[in-house]
Queue: 3 jobs
Job 1
Amino acid sequence: MLHDLALTTPLLILLFAGLFTLVVDPFLPAGDQSRRFWGPFNAAMSAAAIVAAALMWKSGHHEMQTVAFGAHLSASTYSLFFVSLVSLVGMMTHLSSPKYMLEQGVGYGEYFAMVSFATFGMATMVSAESVITLFISLEIMSMAIYVLVAFKRTSIASVEAGMKYFIMGSVASALLLYGMAFLYGLSGGTTFVEIQRALVTAKPDQAVWLGLAVLLTLAAFLFKVAAVPFHMWAPDAYEGAPTTVTGFMASGVKVAAFGALLKILYAALAGQGMDDLHLPVAAILSTVALVTMTVGNLLALVQKNVKRMLAYSAIAHAGYLLLGTVASTVDPVLGAPYAVPGGAVPFYLIGYSLASLAGFAALASLGKNGEELTTEHQLAGLGRRYPFAGAVLSLAMLSLAGVPPTLGFFGKLELLREVLAVDNAKYLPHAIILVLNSVVSAYYYLRVTVYVYMRPEPKVEREYVTEPSLTWAMGLAAAAILAIGVMPGKAINVATLSAHAVRTGIATKNLVHLRGPDAPAKVAEVAAAPQEAPAAPVAEPAVIPQP
Amino acid sequence: MTYNPSALLPVIVLLPLLGALFNGLLGSRLSRQTVYAISNTTVLASFLLSVMVFLGLRGAMVTAPDAAFRYTLYEWIAAGSYKFEIAFLADQLSAVMLLVVTGVGFLVHLYSTGYMHEDPGYARYFSYLNLFIFSMLMLVLGKNLAMLFIGWEGVGACSYLLIGFWFKDMDKAAAGQKAFIVNRIGDVGFLAAMMLLLAYGNGSVDFDHLRVVFSDSAHMLDHAPTVTLIALLLFVGAAGKSAQIPLYIWLPDAMAGPTPVSALIHAATMVTAGVYMIARMNFLFALTPHAMTVVMMVGATTALVAASIGLVQNDIKKVLAYSTVSQLGFMIVAVGAGAYAAGVFHLMTHAFFKGALFLGAGAVIHALHHEQDIRKMGGLKKKLPIIHWTFLISCIAIAGLPPLAGFFSKDAILAETLAFRPNTEKIATYYGESFERQARVKVMADKAPDQAKLAVAVKAERDAYVKSVEDLAIWRKVAFALCLLAAFMTAFYMFRLYFLTFSGDYRGDHHTWDHAHDAPWPMATALVLLAFLSFVGGWVGTPFFHNQFNFFFHWLEPVLARGEELLDGHMTPALEYGLMAASTVVAALGVTLAWWMYRKGPSELGANLANRMSFIYDALLNKYYVDEFYDRVVVRPLRAVSQAAFQVIDRIIVDLVMVRGPGYVLLGVSHAGRLLQNGEVQTYLVGVVLGIALLAYYLV
Amino acid sequence: MPTELLVFYVLAAGVVLSTAAMLLPPMGRNPIHSAIALIVSFFFLAGIYALLSAHLLAAVQIIVYAGAVMVLFTFVIMLLNLTPDQIREPRITATTLIGSGLGLFVFGKLLSALALASNGAKSVDLNDGTHATFGSVTEVGRMLYTTFLVPFELVSVLLLVAAVGAVVLAKRSLKYKDRPKKEAPAAHAVAATDHDTHAAH
């Protein structure tokens, strides 16, 4: 029990941060100013979570020990990577928020508690090893974010955005739950290990159930990552939400959703590559990816409000990432036919979330006195009046556009490389469309820098939100974009290592005895065996031979 | 004694970067003289170091004929199976480019100190110029395709910055934007090719590695269509950078930048990057005669089309711009025909004489207070003697009259285009396994896998391929004819330009005439040196005595070995000297015609001709309406699409069907927009249901 | 067996009918009537759960949903105090037509898939040894505190977040600095459209 708890240290730190903020907040001196303390405090706690995750990574928790609490949670390298990334997103949000939220008139302690809870939800979601844990943690994340989107209650837009997101999100939750019920019915278990075991040995007459399960699960995830045509909630929600929350959503939700999607695709559903399911999952994902990136980019072209433009840009990036999900490689431990995702998606997520965070932090500096000066014209003169924010915003745009030597460029490069490596460049047309899309996107990203630097300053005086922690957030994100852009090797390696560990040790061992030259016979044997095999509690897998 | 100057390579590259950073960051606080000194010294130092590298390479080649210097500065990415290094490679080809870039680059820097002495933006200008040299050096010294690409993007960015240098002028900013966008289209091809090479080339795009990959048929890249696709994609990139049809439109507009920039970037160095890249990748291109033929024909067409446009232009820089496009066409013909060395040779001589021409034109413009219309010039011979003489020498050189530089390089291109043909035997051997695989697939389909049948099928595959390659031979003759015609036009329009500018009577206003002054010493020095090089530069590559003294071609042999190995055909002396005579006659004819028509300024003869054939004349003057065509066919539809999918209908109806009443359309459009994103959750949910329905259709 | 089947059909018909009554006029017109129909539907559902020997779930369904949740629903409806003219008449628009068409398609797909999948499926005898304790309070409690401990604890966090969120959003101590002049719920909807269409001009 204690051991299990120790494995969830990063999650517990995040949970503690939220609870502590909530409990102690009433005892702080009255007045909004003192609430600014929670920003740095929660950021420090997020940083502690990152440190804990990094230490656990270093200490090399592999094999069996990574699974905690009856295989509902894990601390595999995969989980730890994503936990660190969402904690980083949380940390940046905490750093960039305090003064901004105060200026918006809603600088309450609950805000920071909610961000911490949402981060906790994301971290749990990417650590989840069972569908039920995945669902509940997704709900924790979503619930906290609904509240955060509507947090600026003085603004109709904010409340409306929160309400819309809530209604739409509830539909997605229902879909996910329904899909997971089918998965349970199919496999007799809720953990990914049991589901994958059951699917590997599945009988053909279960195909219909599988189709239903995949349909509903996929729909829910496509909604969460805002893929076309499930994307329509995104522009309104992004535009209406307070800017820091938009940054949090754009980066955090995407990281968590893709982290969980990859895991459920590879560690639960398609263990032997997408074709294993005998469903056109890869075709669907890649097609949706193309439509999503194209629609996102085309609609982003005509937006005048940078927040709304970034919402469409986030949709486009979801398209790029979805294409990355089909780029699989052979599982280094199990060998063919078992597949694991490549490192492209995790690596791309680092670049994408850092650029989003930097961009939205810079935009937050325009939120003085409850205003949101985020149309293009209101950006004019930023480069001269607040050079730091202008430079960070421009850098973020360059990275999102994929201009070398920023991190965004290497993200795209790595993504393209892995996508092309699949099946003798089977996705060459997709890759070309992706490149064309990124050419189109350069236009609207560069337009922001044009407004920041090359348009005459407006006559009106303008004040900007300035505070040390916001400066730190911008500086850290920008430095990371450049530093990892100059030395991407290490980050790519880490991302690849984590992606290859999408299956926990227990799952791997459970599958080991199903492969080999006599695998078909064994598969048949397991399939023929009566109910007990799948129903055996996973915490004590009796079927594991010594390697 | 030989020494190893590998460690000089990063210094050569980084010196201009230092200059750029220094001038860029502190330039506004420094005096004019300091900025000049820093920018010129860094480039001069790079040039001197380049000479040392060149000499070192010569020394090293005594013992090892294929010597090259390599220096790895830093391992950028090493992840999994692939890696990128910041590494430099100085082989024979790079060394030539190195000398051209730093040499001409230095002369242009020197010239600029005279040319820009009144401009307040001098620090920014020199910072960009140094940055350009840095990027160009990255491009030519890069040890792998990724480094080349970084330099490629860098020179593009510098070009964009310098074209739009006077960005307060909206037209000039627009020209910069046009260059940027057209080049991005080319970059898509380049990137796609690089991705394919990464995917197939075992995760490395290192030139040494790729050369091995393409020499040994035992790997994945032995499938002819794939190689052709990669080559063509690379050529799309080259066509963008080197201004070939259909992507040449940006170069004439790029003349909006300061004239020294045109000389350096848009004549001597950057635009030749495509030629350099193809010569560098000769081992790939030589394997695919089909792609080579496309390259050659695009080059020949460009040479002719651009030359014909140049016949009637009246802006001194526009004539030179189209001349550049045309000469680039010649180089592309050369590398497309397998005459890589000739292409690089022409690249070098062109850098000399076109550099001199542009700088001369800049000096004229400078002298005449920014007058660019040659109809308002004339008789400047007496007023501007230095400019006149250097301009005349370069004109003779570009026209292709012996014994100046242009003659030898152009002659080499023409001769080798006609004489070479692909060595089908060796190429087919390279694809051997691929033929076998294809044959196996077909035989298996017959369900009778016996060896005899398989052998027949393999032979059939191979014969089909060989035949398809041999069918391409006719295109060489076509390309040769087009080039000969283009050479004639070149001689004509260059001397038309010369006579209209320098001979006859002055046709502008007298105030300008009185104030006209010859080039100040920095400009004069650069002009004289470049004119000298245009005179003698061709002598290193003469074909006399069976190429005995053809130092240039021998020098490049180690780099081009694989490409030339896959070629057949040799020159007979009869063909050689016959062609020489022919091209001299053609050039002399062009010069004579120009002399006859324009020696005394714009003649009635020319005007009559223009009236008589006004259809052709207008087409030429308006550059075949290509810009208008692109605007109609590419730019406008694209813009319409990007106007968020719904205005497309509006555009088509208004522009094409010419139906009046866009009000209705707009109404429909906004309604469609409302359907799309109307802020109502109900509609958004319909989107979700649509998605589920589509998924259900495919999954259940 | 036939008895069970008979009971199931009765209960299932009850669920479908009461849900339909909740949505469609005449009951669907009045929010209170709809709420009552929903309670009826919950009762029928509880019956189905009991039939599957999920006794605890059946009890929870009645106590929590039909009891507590519905009381809250009714309170909210009464607090809103909607008059008939505030309730929008259902209109048939392109959106509703397309939406219901697609919805019917999906429903049909699901139905046919379920029919296909359950064809020849074996039924499980809930009275045999392995399943004897299935759905009992003991069994559910044991599962919640052993196998499903983590999800169970996570739900507490979820409830906390929801509760705090509700309080935050309902808190009344706000200084309305930039209260919009017009309190029309569609205000932003129009704005959203403007962004997308204006840009086209």
Note: The helical segments of chain C are 2-23, 31-51, 55-80, 94-118, 137-145, 149-170, 187-198.
Job 2
Amino acid sequence: MNGVELPTWAALPAAILLVIGGVLALLGALGLLRMKDFYLRMHPPTMVTTLGAGCVLIASMLVSSALRGRPVIHEVLISIFLVLSAPVTAMLLMRAAVARLKKRASRE
Amino acid sequence: MNELFDHAAGFAALCFVLAMGCALVRLFIGPSAQDRVLAYDFMYINGMLTLLMLGIRSHSSVYFDMALLIAMFGFVSTIALAKFLLRGEVIEP
């Protein structure tokens, strides 16, 4: 695409990492759709947030480094941000779910 | 080799779209409010991954900034929704 030829050492691992990321995203979505309980449903999207996003970010780093001819690592910013924000989100959502269940149980 | 790479990017885009469709179904049928928030969280992660994949494919660095912005705003809105579910109020006096 765009008439720029990617070298093989960047194109092949980037393609494999993109496929792995896509399959992980699909598996996480199927888990989100099919699990029975909210506490079970918390788990599959976490896999996509860490591992799937990590795969796509590494592929992006490889391709942009190969195109510029120097190491480009600004994608680390997104991965650091995701690693910092995913546990906070999961913990707050879980606490909200527990509090809502308790409130409903005390009302009945 | 570039052809293989383009096919891989297309496959990844298809997977992300299907994952967003599954999350949309969960968003509509989710029995409780926290299920909907979780599905929304998953959807913005998938949108960010799609933007990154488009950036890889078109060899442009503009998409990276958009992906970073989506990650930040999605995090803030998920935190706001979870806080609202927890306390009934987002910013407490």
Note: The radius of gyration of chain B is 16 Å.
Job 3
Amino acid sequence: MKSSVSVLIYLLPVPLIIFSLLIGPSEQFGLRDFSYALYAFFSTPNHLSNIELARLELMQNIIVNVRMPRVFLTFLVGAALASSGNTLQALFRNPLVDSYVLGISSGAALGAALALLTGWLPVQVSAFLFGILAVCMTYGFAQQRYEKSSVVVILLSGMIVSGLFIAGLSIVQYLSDPYKLQAIVQWTMGNLHQATWEKVEQAVLPIALSLLGMYGMRWRLNLLALGQLEAQAVGVDPRRDQFLLVLFVTLATSSSVAVAGIISLYGLFVPHVVRMLIGPDNAKTVPANIFLGGSFLLIIDNLSRTFSTFEIPIGIFTMLLGAPLFLYLIRRYRMNWA
Amino acid sequence: MTAEFFGLFRCIFLLTFMGLVCAACTPVHVPSDQANTVQIDVTDRYGNRVQLQKPAQRIVCLFEASADDLYMLGAGSALVGIPAKIYSAPDLYHAYSILDRRIAQKQIATPSNWEASTNIESVVALQPDLVVVNAGQTDVIKVLQKMQIPVYAVMSENLQQTRKELHDLGALTGRSERARQLLQFIDAEIAAMNAKKHNTTQQKTVYYGWSGGRIFSTSGIDSMPNTVMTLAGARNVVTTSIDQPNVNPEKLLEWNPDVILLWNSRPEQIYERPELKTLSAVQHRQVYNLRPTFLFNPHTPKILLAANQLQHWLSGSVDVHQDAAHDMQRILSEFYGATHAAQFIHMAQSKE
């Protein structure tokens, strides 16, 4: 059963990406029109009228410049958030942890808000830098002079740093005019409707590197999940590995937040869904989170962009769809983390 | 000894505290012998009745568009409190500095930042005889009314409200005649634009993009930008009634508007996007920016200026820029006088 689910998870992205490219909010460019255009182009390419050619050009523009960057960006962001959440849950041995626990989301939100208010830096760059800054502060505050920082101290430190950045965000919102406030609020709800190839280029390298890093360390993650002493007993340097994994998570999450805003709780529930479907072995959950995380966010975004003529922020749809699914799976698999 | 001392201290503290609570619960007695001498009696759109013995001399205006109205009415000198955003937003500060030297020197108090962050103590300390406040600040309105301070609530969500508020502010400041002139001018301008509308054969379509580069955030049919389009004789491509929906670029390509109207965003943000290159408005260079925003504030009578300029841009005539500039001079002169109009136009040109 679990192996067939695994196969399904790994095979899902390709048909889903193709399907996502063929649907959109515009009424005139659905699946049927696309099939007709392809048929017309291949059957009588030299006999197409100017109107048909213009329509083909428009369709090509929509698919190449609007849908493709959005579909790829959504998949990347979903994969990054889910794998980061999975890695942190294993690393901190805590099922309540998500990809934003180290203060990345609040840091990035403050960075984006400052950029929107003052224009001192591009929004994505500012969000990325502040996300990294928040993680550095979390680790800085959690550092103990004579002994290793415990997981609880790191998590507490992350919460406090988040609180600090949220306070900063509140100040910026308070000082912002209504137009900028609207932009800040919308940014914090998650937004993929402004996806461009430029954003894909910005996000693809750090996210791909981070995902590769997490994938490469998936076996070590199993050892780290046993605890620091146990990991040391089998020859693993937990501090070095923990540092590397947190670095990958920070890079992946900051890049995602910078290009797509905050998509709440996605990094919390997708790793749980994956564990329910294929078990707790991190050697399997890491790649499964990459594939299912990307695919599931793509499904949500497909609904988000085709549901009505205007866009509904993806952060809203994520919870509207993700929460019932998660609750259903909890009941279905009778999960109990006690 | 120490225990007795602390016991006594506790008693004194409790008695003082109870006294303060009782004092706070006692209604403040404010002499109210003014009813017989009321000369001005206005009721705002939200049912607040404002009665004044004489035209307001000390006005705290916490709604920026209404402060602008007061300058158009010639009552700007009565302002003793304004929103801090007039100082902090460069466009606004520049514009209001032209209208009032006190603003240029930052001499007028700022008891609120934006429309929803009022410091009541600062307002009261200014001893206003009229407070103009955003209708959404219901708590502030109630507190000020309890203190017997006349409060006029505004919102300016559509042209009808703007007209009523201009009329009422004219009455409250003793500038009813000037308000009447402005309202007549508004009617005449709308009639002139309607006449032009009937001469055009085909209604053009417009897409509106919000400020600060939010080009995919637009405005629905119940919005002020929609009123601008309607006055200009155009049709909004967005048909939803949501005030500020986000749209997919794909939808914009499908709508393919004739003109794209931006609010404080650079047209290059449209022109430079590869996915929008097939848009008719992009191919015909029909992307326009309403900036500086002060000159086109749709919550004031200047909504006419925005509509007028849009109508020129829609016309596509050869002398479009010359005609638009001429009308801008004419309309601003009517609102602020010829000298200020010239300064505003110079300001607009320096922003381009």
Note: Chain A has a mean pLDDT of 85.
